Amino acid sequence: MEPVPPLSDADRPVRRCVCPGSYDPITLGHLDVIKRAAQLYDEVVVAVLYNQAKEGMFTPAERRELINAECAQLPNVRAIEFQGRLLVDVCKELQIAAIVKGLRGETDYSYELPMAVMNRYLTGVETVFLPGDPSYTQVSSSLIKEVARFGGDISGLVGPGVASALAAKLG
Ligand code: PNS
User: Fold this and answer.
1) Which of 18, 22, 91 to mutate to test the pocket of ligand 1 (most atoms within 8 A of CB)?
2) Within 10 Å of residue 91's Cβ, how many Cβ atoms?
3) Cα gap 139→118, rounded to integer Å
4) Which of 30, 63, 101, 145 is catalytic?
5) Cα–Cα distance measured from residue 162 to residue 25, given in angstroms and rounded to the nearest whole number
6) Residue 54: which pLDDT band, with cuts at 50, 70 and 90?
7) Tens digit of pLDDT for each residue in 92-130?
8) 106-135 burial string, b = 16+ CB within 10 Å, else e?
């Protein structure tokens, strides 16, 4: 039997994933997951969910700009905003085959698993979980904001641009 020739790069479909979240603001924990996703997929779409019920500190445009600045060295990463629609519909529209999420521990897993199962039920889109880097298990956007608000040092947990943006917001 003739050996099957490998697909050339031109024949291979683009493998795209999404890293969804609130990103209010992006932390080094988020960035670690995005960088690792960028090594696994051809293109990474960082989808910023804006929830009107949970106004947050940064506007959706500010969150997107902070992400784009943090990811400036990652040419296959881009950020978008979405609201008032299902993540699976964004995936369909942008031909995204996988949702990539970082898991810091069991609490994240319990929160993420039902969403992963629901998203797969709705359209078949798969969720890929990456173990969070142990250096960032304590890092969440809400804790960062609280620590920054009371003058704690968050410089090792967010990028310099995000630290400046937080300082500017908090006056
Ligand atoms: O950073 P967060 O707030 O934990 O991210 C939650 C997010 C954005 C991933 C989730 O709320 C989401 O996907 N919302 C979009 C609406 C949707 O698709 N809901 C059904 C999820 S099964």
Assistant:
1) 22
2) 24
3) 26
4) 30
5) 7
6) confident
7) 999 999 999 999 999 999 999 999 999 999 999 999 999
8) eebeeebeeebeebeeeeebebebeebeee
Q: Which residue has the tokens 């106004």?
A: 55
Q: Which of 4, 29, 42, 15 is nearest to 141 (CA)?
A: 29
Tokens of 76: 């296959």
Residues 129 and 40 sit within 8 Å (Cβ to Cβ): no
Q: Where are the alpha helices (DSSP H) in the chain?
A: 28-40, 60-70, 87-93, 106-123, 141-149, 160-170
Query: What residues contact 139, with CB distance under 8 A and at least 6 apart?
Result: 27, 28, 29, 104, 157
Atom in ligand 1 nearest the alpha carbon of residue 86? 18
Crossing angle for the helix pair 141-149 and 160-170, nearest 10 degrees? 50
Cα–Cα distance list, 56 to 49, 94, 116, 127 (Å)? 11, 26, 24, 26
- As a whole number of angstroms, the distance between CA 68 and CA 60 comes to 12
Residue 145: other Cβ atoms inside 10 A = 18
d(CA 88, CA 123): 7
